Amino acid sequence: MEEKTNGLRDQQMRRRRINKMKMYILTFGAVWILILSILSTVLLVKLIVLEDRLERIEESVISVEQFVENQNQKNAGSPEEKKPDTVQDNTAGYETGAQSAEPMTEEGTKAEEAEHRKVYLTFDDGPSENTARILDILKERNIKATFFVIGNEEEEAKALYQRIVDEGHTIGMHSFTHKYDVIYQSLEAYVEDMRHLQSYLEEITGVTTNLIRFPGGSSNHVSNVDMRELIRYLNEEGFTYFDWNVASGDATSQVYTPDELVQNVINDVVKYDTSVVLMHDSSAKSTTVEALAPMIDQLEEMGAELLPIDENTQPVQHITAENVE
Question: Which of 50, 125, 148, 271 could be joined to 174 by an S-S link, Cβ 3.0–4.6 Å?
Fold first, then answer.
């Protein structure tokens, strides 16, 4: 009888040990799955960040190639430099170069010679938390600007789209995805992306915008589609696109201080009666925010009128739309 009791006790202890082992294994498995999930999430975030950085680097490489090509054309006096539908520029370090659609004197119009200077401050790649900071500065200074936005479906972004419109600024389209390899894959791909953004902004703000800025500008070299084909479509559909003839340099691989960004703008604004200034308000552009207030101060000291783009603004275009048939 005692042996039978001992045997039952041994069996119970064995079951307990087995149950404990099972519990340990299940706990270990659950912890390991949790760790793998966290690692996967971290790696995914890092991959997204790296993809964004690679895209920025690609834009910078494009800008350098464009600069070198422009310099070579200028030095060689090539016929391409004199094409009537493309105005070249020799500004280093900007996305694709600061260019003008309006004929200028060879040396440009100096600030002291200009009777009335118009400056259009434009911001690409928002909205982000920096967009809110920029809007605060503009509101404090009673300045209106233009925002060429991308697609962002977060609630904070939707509020910023609405705030841009409500505070009297101009909202335009940059692209929904801002992925060059997607939007420039074909005419159909570009139109789908652009129309998606247009309807999205109309749904949120009630505004149907027909203003566009091509990612990389109309003279970019990354598009798989001839840019004139895209321009032809925009002309037929009644859209207007704006490039720039002044750039702050905040889109380049070179890191500028806020003072240097301001000086980049001021140095080029003196060349034109009408300046369209390229800046960016994505989450990585805090330096641009720091440069904005002193930039406005210096522009106003020059006597410049700071305006938002509207239907009466003469477009500044690297490839002139009216010359594309």
Answer: 148
Mean pLDDT of 38-64: 61
Interior angle at CA 287, CA 152 and CA 167, nearest 5: 50
Chain segment 79-132, per-residue pLDDT in tens: 333 333 333 332 333 343 333 334 333 333 344 455 689 999 999 999 999 999
Strand pairing partners for 175?
150
The one catalytic residue in 169, 174, 280, 318 is: 280
Buried-state track 202-229, b at ≥16 Cβ within 10 A, e below 16 = eebbeeebebbbbbbbbbbeebebebbe
Residue 54 lies in a domain: no
Catalytic annotation, pick one of 124, 243, 250, 281? 124
Q: Is 280 a catalytic residue?
A: yes
Read off the tokens for 239.
């859209």
Determine the structural domain holding residue 233 and report its residue range. Answer: 61-323
Matching residue, tokens 């101009």: 170
- Range scoring the smallest mean pLDDT among 8-12, 39-43, 185-189: 8-12
318 is catalytic: no
**Dist CA 140 CA 252 (whole Å):** 29
9 is a domain residue: no
**Domain at 207, CATH number:** 3.20.20.370
